[in-house]
Specification:
The protein has eleven helices and 13 strands. The protein is an alpha/beta fold. The strands form two sheets. It has an eleven-stranded mixed beta sheet, sandwiched between helices. Strand 6, helix 5 (159-167) and strand 7 (171-176) form a beta-alpha-beta unit. The longest helix is centred in the N-terminal third of the chain and has 27 residues, at 26-52.
Length: 374
């Protein structure tokens, strides 16, 4: 069903007025999914045009794309997309910042604790003294990542665990906003055996102190880079600080496509959104800005790898992980992070005269606004 943009706007306006707990009828569901598919198809065509303009665009086994030095492409991403990662290790349920793009926006103080002295690995709670047992009973992953939420809130608790996994030969990377990083704790992380540190530079909008911390981290940790959701605000500040950022000697930049959930959607309400494979919802600006940055990086020969960590990449990650876990053909955990489609959030893109569907056809009988749709 190649629904027209005008008909889609009419129907989504109606759907947005329905009570949230009122499910759509089957033909209404067809209309909703046809509309999302039309938006997705048009956005993918725009993305393809932008990718075609990037010189030297490289593929990671067809699972992701990047530009720049192959040796600087993050090994944590190779583990995630080709190996048996991403295996999350959770400890800290607090953060010192409140970022509008955060998945836990507005609920930061409500995040449940892991438990004093405990670590969550694979959904199971462990003490540090249990790690030898874990390593002796389980197949080692190619890599693990320290996530949830800001590890530097209690970074001294991480050193022993990092050292244990380092001795076991497991590649380890960590995420941080960088505002609490110091020469002392970065050196301690390197001495413990952390392989890779990723700075969410967008969390501080490219604060000078965090850029300095990136340079310091590079003295102690083998792989150091940026991983941040790409927003217009970040791109503006990043481009202003670009010479200073590149001068840190960092290895890579992961341009994460911003995706939305019920916590952070309101912060981006009014932007043009699309849905990727009936899963993540994202502003179309995020991926398009990434591709423009990649083009600039390639044309100016930045001495780093710049990685397109978009929704397609995350889709590939899920498929790869489930396949390594022995899942059935096509299995993944990919899905929408909303209880139902937030119809009102798509009204801006359906009202935007500059966003056009590629092909449109009249609705068949039984699906038109004046028909009774069952």
């Amino acid at each position: 069903m190649l629904i027209s943009k005008a008909d889609a706007l009419t129907w989504f306006t109606f759907f947005a007025e329905l009570p949230e707990d009122e499910p759509l009828l089957p033909r209404q569901q067809e209309i909703a999914l046809a509309t999302l598919a039309q938006i997705e198809t048009a956005e993918e065509a725009r993305v393809d045009r932008l990718k075609a303009d990037i010189p030297g665009l490289k593929s990671l086994n067809g699972r992701s794309f990047y530009v720049g030095d192959d040796a600087r492409f993050p090994k944590g991403c190779r583990s995630c997309l080709l190996g048996t990662g991403l295996s999350a290790v959770r400890k800290t349920n607090r953060c010192n910042l409140r970022c509008p793009f955060c998945y836990d926006y507005g609920e930061m103080d409500l995040q449940p604790p892991i438990g004093s002295g405990y670590w969550e690995i694979g959904g199971t709670k462990f003490r540090e003294s249990d790690l030898d047992l874990l390593l002796s009973t389980s197949k080692k992953p190619t890599g693990i990542a320290y996530v949830y939420l800001e590890p530097f809130m209690e970074i001294e608790k991480y050193y022993g665990v990092i050292a244990k996994f380092h001795a076991a030969g497991i590649y380890q990377h960590m995420y941080t906003n960088g505002t609490l990083a110091t020469e002392e704790n970065l050196r301690a992380l390197g001495e413990a055996g952390l392989d890779e540190l990723r700075f969410n530079l967008g969390a501080s909008l490219c604060a000078d102190s965090v850029i300095e911390a990136i340079a310091t981290a590079k003295k102690h940790i083998p792989m150091v880079g940026i991983e941040t959701p790409i927003t217009p605000e970040f791109c503006e500040s990043f481009c202003e600080k670009l010479p200073a950022v590149l001068a840190t000697g960092l290895d890579f930049m992961n341009c994460a496509e911003l995706h939305l959930n019920p916590n952070n959607l309101e912060n981006y309400f009014g932007e043009n959104l699309y849905q990727y494979r009936q899963g993540y919802l994202s502003p179309i600006s995020s991926h398009e800005l990434t591709l423009k940055l990649m083009r600039r990086a390639a044309e100016e020969a930045w001495p780093i790898a710049v990685h397109d960590c978009c929704n397609r990449t995350k889709f590939a990650r899920d498929l790869n992980l489930r396949a390594h876990e022995g899942g059935w053909f096509g299995a993944s955990a990919w899905g929408m992070e909303f209880p139902c489609i937030p119809y009102a959030a798509f009204l801006p893109i359906l009202s935007d005269p500059d966003f056009a569907f590629l092909r449109e056809e009249p609705l068949p009988e039984g699906y038109r606004p004046q028909d009774l749709v069952l």
